[in-house]
Amino acid sequence: MTKKGLVYAGDNGDEQVTNTQFHVVAECDRVEGGDAGLLLRWINRGRGMEYVVLKSQISARGSKLLQELRSNNMLFTESTSRRLLDFLGTVQARKFVRTVGTVGWDQASGWGRPTFMLPSGEALGLGSSGQEIRFARSDVDPAKKRAKYASAGTLEEWKTHVAARAIGNSRLILGICLALSSPLLQVLGGTIEPGGIHMWGGNGTGKSTFSNVVASIWGDPRKITTELDGTKTGFENEAELSSCIGLYLEEMKSDDKSISKEIGRIIYMWANRKGGTRSGPNIAIRETKEFDLMFSSTGEYHLKNVIEMSGGTYTGGIEARMTSIQATPPGSTFGILDTIHDAESSKAFVDDLKKNCENLHGTAGRHFIMRLIDDITSNGRQDIQDWFSKSIQNFIQDYVPDGSDNMIHRVGKRFAFMAAVGELAASTYGTLPWPQGEAFQGVGTCFRSWLDDRGGLGAREDILAIQQVRSFIEQHGLNRFEDIAAMRSAITDAGGYISSSRETVGVREITRENTYNYYVFHETWKNIICRGIDPIRAAKAVRDAGALQTGTSGRSLTMQKAIPGQGKTRVYVITSKILQAGDILDDED
To answer: How far apart are CA 290 and CA 522, in angstroms?
Structure first.
């Protein structure tokens, strides 16, 4: 190695292999074995470069090693590239550095003095042993990861120009709390169920502002936010490389039917902390990918609409794992914002915030992790777990109504967790410039907004069943139910009764209150009105909502009614109260 670069001393004289001087700093390997490599350093236009070359990259077919070295301005010609690979495949170093292939908390360092590995390859904290570690994987472009999770500006600048502007803005507070939550999932020992937030609303509501603020915690929002466009396997890989950091998606669209139909399974995968099992090229079972992360997305439609418009099924399990929040707070005239502080307009506010997020980012996440490492080292995980347990319970007492369904408690606990993270970051760690209680109030406001949109405190399946029956009556109450009075009068008519209804599902009868009762035939109730849901559970939900008539004993869900031309038959009697039972998710009233 000379000042001008690597030289090969051959029988026919010296051959210049690279025009860049570099240093082989150390050999590296994983503790568990495999992925041996070298740690290289060189100067690129006055800036120090560091790169881990894995030995498997040197001879692997389709390897992008040479391309990546060139992209980081290591200079060599195509004719000498073979010499460079030969050198990297045989050189040795005295120093040893441990490598890891996963991001987040380094398990080998333990919790005495933990180490946190950012996706950029930057290690935070010294670890219990004080040993140097580096992130290295053959399928990851380190230059792109460094650019994605780069820091810009100072923490104080970000606090002043981004975080402080979130004060009083419930949706932005929720996003920041979510973005700081992923590192705590492992610290709390798996007591918190991972999950996500889907922020939805029409164009111009400021959803991209939410994405910019959330992503600015960890890096460049222009690179961190990702459109939901890919395969389940792709999002499994993305989750692994975002573990303990978070996954931030933008513009979940209803017109991409393939991915929209798949999103339910993807949400389950992220929340369940691991990917699928599949075989490798030699039919051997590949190691299952694991991750711990919170996630967010934005879009024009409620997640229910996105999934159902693509032919999928929206379930209570999906909602429990990814909760849809209306982007516009009730009564707001500023889109996603509750307040614009001293800005001239909401547009001026969001334009300024976007610019600040692009110029000031990546510092808050690093500061929070370092303070968390100090906290764990000084006080231990148990102390942190006890503090969170009390804070979560306080939030639940204040915001989760008594008598709520179990799913509401699940969602409430996750919101409580995010609120507690925000309070910790503000009042104890100094990462956020918020007054005490700001995180609780902002996150709590969003939780109550979700409760209001949900339509009740009961089980999600029951609410959806009521909404499905109500929607059917609203759409088909006049054209798919025969008028029983017309049928009776036609019995004595020589011409008989001629139906004007198509695909009849039952009959309707006017009441003394000038409202209709709808008599639904048993089979049509099961196969048409309750298609895709449990018909018995749906009938019980409608009964409990006061919109289903039953006999005096109340034991049967159906009643006998005399239908002209058919005699007595058992039917489900739906009253007009169904039209007031169960708020539609996107109701604007």
So the answer is: 47
Quick check: 467 and 414 in contact, CB under 8 A? no
Neighbours of 454 (CB within 10 A): 22
CA dist 376 and 332 (Å) reads 41
Buried b (16+ CB within 10 A) or exposed e, 267-299: bebbbebebeeeeeeeeeeeeebebbbbbbbbb
- Phi, psi for 2 (deg, rounded to 5): -115, 175
**What are the E-state strand segments in 64-167?**
96-100, 104-105, 116-117, 123-124, 133-135
Strand order in the sheet with 47-54: 47-54, 37-44, 22-29, 96-100, 133-135
Compute the distance between CA of residue 362 and CA of residue 372 in angstroms, rounded to an integer: 16
Each residue's pLDDT expressed in tens, for the chain with a length of 589 residues? 999 999 999 888 999 999 999 999 999 887 656 678 999 999 988 888 888 898 888 877 778 889 889 988 899 999 999 999 999 999 999 898 888 888 999 988 889 889 999 998 889 987 655 678 888 887 787 778 888 999 999 999 999 999 999 999 999 999 999 999 999 999 999 899 999 999 999 888 999 999 999 999 999 999 998 766 556 677 888 899 999 999 999 876 555 556 667 888 899 999 999 886 554 544 444 568 899 999 999 999 999 888 888 778 888 889 999 999 999 998 899 999 999 999 999 999 999 999 999 999 999 999 999 999 999 999 999 999 999 999 999 999 999 988 888 889 999 999 999 999 999 999 999 999 999 999 999 999 999 999 888 766 667 778 888 888 999 999 998 889 998 888 888 776 655 666 667 788 999 999 999 999 999 998 999 999 998 888 998 998 899 888 999 877 767 899 999 988 788 999 999 999 998 875 444 433 3
DSSP secondary structure code for residue 284 in this structure: P
Q: Residue 169: what are its φ and ψ, rounded to 5°?
A: -110, 100
* Cα–Cα distance for residue pair 231/238, rounded to 1 Å: 11
Phi (first) and psi of residue 51, to 5 degrees:
-145, 135
Give the closest residue to 296 by CA, choosing from 420, 208, 422, 399.
Answer: 208
CB-count burial class (<10 Å; 0-12, 13-18, 19+) for 12 = exposed
Neighbour tally for 224: CB within 10 Å = 26
Tokens 């110029």, residue? 359
Lookup: tokens for 450: 């979700």
Q: How many helices (H) and strands (E) does the chain have?
A: 22, 21
Amino acid at position 26, single letter = A
Rg (CA), the chain: 30
Length of the chain: 589
The number of C-alpha atoms within 13 Å of 110 and in the hemisphere containing its C-beta is 8
Three-class secondary structure of residue 560 per DSSP: strand
